[in-house]
Amino acid sequence: MRYDPTAEALARIERKLDLVMQHLGLHDYAPPAPDPLTEVRALIGQGKKIQAIKVYRELTGVGLKEAKDAVEMLETRR
């Protein structure tokens, strides 16, 4: 196994950063994934159900019936 000074330096920096974050009470969380249905929900909120169904179909690739059912389910959860 070869000695890699860059990898060793990076490991030291990561250890130090972990200690600093621990001391400050910070956690290394990944940012939440964006909601792919944000636009669909906004259209539902604006009363644009047909447009919401179209966008849902574009995003998911499902048929008209499935998209309509899904949008109606989202509509009831508002």
Automatic annotation (TrEMBL):
Superkingdom of this protein's organism: Bacteria
GO process annotations (BP): translation
Coiled coil, from the record: none
Pfam families given in the database record: Ribosomal_L12
Molecular function GO terms recorded: structural constituent of ribosome
Residues annotated as domain Large ribosomal subunit protein bL12 C-terminal: 47-74
Protein name: Large ribosomal subunit protein bL12 C-terminal domain-containing protein
Gene source species: Glycomyces algeriensis
Taxonomic lineage: Bacteria, Bacillati, Actinomycetota, Actinomycetes, Glycomycetales
